[in-house]
Amino acid sequence: MKNGTGLVVGVDLGGTKMHAAAVDEHGRVLGEARCKTLPDEGAGAVIERIAKIVRDAVKASSHPLADVQAVCVGVPGGVDAHTGIVDRAPNLGWEHVPLGPELSAALGGVRVFLDNDVRVAVLGEFAYGVGRGAQTMVGVFVGTGIGGGVVVGGRLHLGARGAAGEIGHMCLDPSGPRCPCGRIGCAEALASRTSIERDVRALVKRGRKSKVLKLMAKENRPRLTSSVIARALADGDKVMRKVMARAQFHLGLLVGNLVNALDPEVVVIGGGIAERLGEDFVTPIRAGARERFLVERDADHVRIVPTQLKDQAAPLGAAFVARQRLGLVHARTTDAPKSAP
Ligand SMILES: [Zn+2]
Questions:
Q1: Between helices 313-325 and 117-128, what is the axis angle to 10°?
Q2: Is 229 strand, coil or helix?
């Protein structure tokens, strides 16, 4: 490959599975590899598996490892981008793990960058998905929790201390349920997959009939999955429909608040449920959000859309971050919209 335009590898490191994509300078995925994370086997074993899927993805791209300019890993937790150390990743049981240096060593010295998994997914949609051509975008990722990110002026908004974008902990109901963060009524406590499961179980306990628990048992997975949600909705399960409508109502509030605060061009709804249900998931959220809009014309100007890249958002975004850190891409400052009247 020509110098300065080479291959980068983006990795999405999740608590249950990991996914690597070898990406060229146009954002094309040339090769991919996936495997289970198995965090119980310890950080060393996980890092070895990351190295393996990076090699496998590069192999699938028909390039030698020597063509890889950098690897970037999206980590489910906090990272120190300068030292390459994962400060804390609860889903992996990690604290102070030197992922960057160790992965680099395992890959023969390839440069390794780290970033947060949700942030890279937002950047993936921004650079290569629904956000292409936009300057201002909000990403809302609904999964076990609710994560997000805000792109302003073509750049991820990090805030004064790098802590911006925690939109899952925006309070939507001060008398609502407790959130894993310890506070009351956060969006995450009202509309994440975890809270959907909690509400389904509560209704079943109160005697409402639902197939959801049976579907869960059939899948033999400990937690409610997006596939069970989709199946139950398709079967017309009343409990699932009721609980989902409530989650969508709260997501509509969240998106409406975000639009009023940030005036974005695009709001992308991602995560497992959005990947599976797509427009069906987003339609009620969009309708709810629009009721909150203060500026009438926003209804036609703000695109509220499901993820386009689906499970490639995070690896593609990680690849984009790698290219940014290498100085191969710059913020899109040249085509900024004219200031509002
Ligand atoms: Zn919270």
A1: 90
A2: helix
Cβ atoms of residues 56 and 33 within 8 Å = yes
Residue 173 CA to ligand 1 centre (angstroms) = 11
Burial of 226-252, coded b for 16+ CB within 10 Å and e otherwise, reads bebbbbbbeeebebbeebbeebbbbbb
Give Cβ neighbours of residue 75 (< 8 Å, ≥ 6 apart).
13, 86, 89, 99, 114, 115, 116, 117
Contact 258, 122 (CB under 8 A): no
CA distance 196 to 191: 6
The pLDDT tens digits for 114-157 are: 999 999 999 999 999 999 999 999 999 999 999 999 999 999 99
The DSSP call for residue 172 is S
Read off the pLDDT of residues 232-278 as tens digits, 9 standing for 90 and up.
999 999 999 999 999 999 999 999 999 999 999 999 999 999 999 99
Distance 243 CA to ligand 1 centre (A): 19
Ligand 1 centroid from CA 77, angstroms: 15
Give the bridge partners for 8, in sequence order.
23, 70
pLDDT tens figures, 300-315: 789 999 999 999 999 9
Residue 215 CA to ligand 1 centre (angstroms) = 29
Q: Is 95 helix (H, G, I), strand (E, B) or coil?
A: strand
Euclidean distance between the first and final Cα of the chain, in Å? 46
Structure tokens at 231: 């199946």
Cα–ligand 1 centroid distance for 339 (angstroms)? 34
Distance 89 CA to ligand 1 centre (A): 17
Average pLDDT value over all residues in the chain: 93
Single out the residue of 185, 161, 167 nearest to residue 270, CA to CA.
Answer: 167
How many CA atoms, within 13 angstroms, populate the side-chain half-sphere of residue 228?
22
> Would you say residue 296 has pLDDT above 80?
no
